[in-house]
Amino acid sequence: MIWALDIILLYFLVILSIIVVFTKDLLAATVVFSIYGLVMAIVFAQLNAPDVALTEAAVGAGITTLLFIVTIAKTTRREED
Predict the structure, then answer these.
(1) Per the count of CB atoms within 10 A, which of 4, 30, 50, 64 is most buried?
(2) Which pTM value belongs to this model?
(3) Any residues with CB less than 8 A from the CB of 65 and at least 6 apart, and which?
(4) How far is CA 9 from CA 35, 37, 60, 69, in A?
């Protein structure tokens, strides 16, 4: 039963990473990247590494997402003429 959950999480991670790479909108890519970090935290928890899971949830999904969103908000979009 645990193998099924591991395989589902693995496929979900692959799909999320492909979505992040091919998404044109930076904010949408940041949100998907945050979800990727949360799923990675779940994977680390499944592997009995709670310290790594907490660090991934805090840094990978929390702080990194916040920094990306602040950076996107402070930059301007350039349109081609």
Answers:
(1) 30
(2) 0.85
(3) 30, 31, 33, 34, 37
(4) 12, 12, 17, 26
What whole-number distance in Å separates Cα of residue 4 and Cα of residue 56? Answer: 23
Contact partners, residue 39, CB within 8 Å, separation at least 6: 9, 12, 13, 16
pLDDT digits (tens, 9 = 90+) for 25-59: 889 999 999 999 999 999 999 999 999 999 999 99
Directed axis angle between helix 26-46 and helix 2-22, to 10°? 160
* 26 neighbors 76 (Cβ within 8 angstroms): no
In-domain check, residue 81: no
What are the helix (H) ranges across 23-78?
Answer: 26-46, 50-55, 64-74
| 18 located within any domain | yes
